[in-house]
Amino acid sequence: MKFTEEHEWLKIEGDLLVVGITEHASTQLGDVVFVELPDVGREVEKGEEIVVIESVKAASDISAPVDGEIVEVNDAIVDNPSLVNEDPLGAAWFFKIKVEDTSVIDGFMDEGAYKDYAG
Amino acid sequence: MSDLLRTPLYDVHVELGAKMVPFAGYDMPVQYPLGVMKEHLHCRAAAGLFDVSHMGQVILRGADAAVQLEALIPQNVLGLAEGRQRYGFFTNEEGGILDDLMFANRGDHLLLVVNAANKAADIAHLKAHMDGVEEITDRALLALQGPASEDALKSVVPALPDMKFMDVAVVDSAYGELWVSRSGYTGEDGYEISVPEATATDFAKALIALEAVEPIGLGARDSLRLEAGLCLHGNDIDPTTTPVEGNLIWAIQKSRRTGGERAGGFPGAEVILDQLDNGAPKKRVGLQPEGRAPMRALTMIYASEEAADPIGEVTSGAFGPTLNAPMSMAYVTTEFAASGTRLFGDVRGKRMPVQVVDLPFVPNNFKR
Q1: Burial class (CB in 10 A: 0-12, 13-18, 19+), B190
Q2: Is B318 part of the contact surface with chain A (CB cutoff 8 Å)?
Q3: What is the tens place of the pLDDT at every residue in B247-263?
Q4: Contact B37 A31 (CB under 8 A)
Q5: How far is B293 from chain A (nearest CA, A)?
Q6: Within a 10 A sphere around the Cβ of B52, how many other Cβ atoms?
Q7: Contact A57 B223 (CB under 8 A)
Q8: pLDDT tens digit sequence for B317-345
Q9: Domain A2-101 has CATH 3.90.550.10
């Protein structure tokens, strides 16, 4: 599992990357009450804002960590947003993205580096 | 952060692991480790303790205090019985709301509770118009809210008399003289309790030690009051909105309206009485988004998906944990203010449907 500066995690699953948000991010957000995910099939560019998360405190965006095509989204967190607080690293993954080369993941922080980064 | 004021309960909040944020010049708990959602639900299910010591407590001792206060607010002060409290608001010459407040008749004086953000201005306003204005600075103010409040408070204050909604009493306790009112700002039954600063920490700890009571932060205070349809001054009412526009007509007693025995005689009376008789151009309403996305303050409201010009604006919006749905309060042009009207809010560039609904979103549970 690798981590972005925007507090997302990524892991490889076949030729896809699975993306979610970190425990640190979910704690900072507070109770999540609404999630809007991108359409399946959408081609996204790195940095493009593709997810909206609303917590009891505020709305925040999540941007695509890499270029690729959204091939699957996790409707479970749309139906039950509190899953994002309960199991951010597991059941509450956000989307799966098809990338040209999964080695793009090597450009992100490993767990140790992320822990230092997130403090 | 050193310029932020602290309430007498600051150390209790820190000890409880609260997340502290600046609010109205004070370092205040926005949430405790339980989190906003669970704090909110706990308050409606059992009892929640809120530190509201940042609010202003003001005594008016002048012989003509009631008459003089009636010159500043459109409420019936002279007719308020001893031991009773009432909701009111200071108005300006344009009929706008300078602040909202609670005032109680305590026999030989009136006790006011005003908002933290406005208390300096309120006190200056009072002092400019009357004598005997005394700010209380040596007392904390706590709110205990929720269906288990009565049992909880009785267990800590055995001398607590029977009180109904908006009764006030002075009660002797192990924590000194308590000034108690049966009121609050959550829509639940409960009490607001003024306690001497020196014993406030022990009093709060004794309540929190009870199984039924959890400390509640400003985050849940906001979602609780919004579900209850109650206004936050600065958001939902302010010096540019009148009480008629703010849908607070119920708080202006007949005696102060046209034809009443002391009609008018408060700042902005001409505007407010005219709007009472002839209507106002806009009105505060509840909005129920049809989707799950909260519609927060400043969201613009439109009459249709295509309309170019907005007909309203959200002033408070959040997810209601008890309602289990998003909810907003907004001002809309009066022709669109009827319950059941379908409107659209612009959320991130998309027109999302909403219904105008009656307030409150969650029924009040006062001890009448």
Answers
A1: buried
A2: yes
A3: 999 999 999 999 999 99
A4: yes
A5: 6
A6: 23
A7: no
A8: 999 999 999 999 999 999 999 999 999 99
A9: no
